[in-house]
Design a protein that fits this description.
This protein is mostly helical. It contains 7 helices and no strands. The longest helix is centred in the last third of the chain and has 30 residues.
């Protein structure tokens, strides 16, 4: 990956996933409202938004593994420096390890605020804090983990809504 690939990083793909999936959820909810006319075109539009969200999610995961995962032995020092600078520039790594300081840090993170309110951020942090310190995981990567957990929950919600609509169509 080089500097020209910065637009393909985790945050832009994650934000696209978030926007696409929340739009799909909104349309699915409108269709599920009692008395709503189940317009086929709206359903297919929401389904397309959900598929787009899933694709952006997969791309974001792939890029996160590239940026945050272990480096191969053959990587040059220039690439290591570029990666370190990039992670620092986008504030992707948590600086604190103590839970109270980390909570304060993630609550001030601008990107997380775009996707969640403070209560959700605290919820995802408390869910992941202990597990992120175990094994080969690094606590510094917890911000990205919080983002992916939120996106995964949104995708699950959208798929569940889609499933309800399809079941309602089969019954009618």
């Amino acid at each position: 990956m080089e500097a020209k690939d910065t637009e393909k990083l985790v945050y832009p793909k994650a934000l696209k996933c978030f926007k696409s999936t929340t739009r799909a959820i909104d349309v699915f909810r409108q269709i599920l409202e009692p008395g709503s006319s189940q317009d086929q075109t709206e359903f297919y539009r929401a389904r397309k938004l959900l598929r787009d969200g899933e694709d952006f999610f997969k791309q974001a995961i792939k890029n996160a593994k590239r940026l945050l995962g272990p480096l191969p032995e053959y990587v040059t020092s220039d690439y290591q420096k570029w990666r370190k600078d990039l992670l620092s520039q986008y504030h992707m790594l948590a600086q604190n390890e103590e839970q109270q300081a980390l909570t304060k840090e993630v609550l001030q993170d601008e990107f997380l605020k775009k996707m969640m309110d403070n209560d959700e951020i605290k919820k995802y942090l408390s869910l992941n804090y202990d597990s992120q310190k175990q094994g080969q995981r690094k606590l510094a990567n917890i911000k990205v983990r919080i983002i992916f957990d939120k996106l995964n929950d949104l995708l699950s919600e959208a798929k569940e809504a889609q499933k309800k609509i399809l079941q309602a169509k089969q019954q009618s």
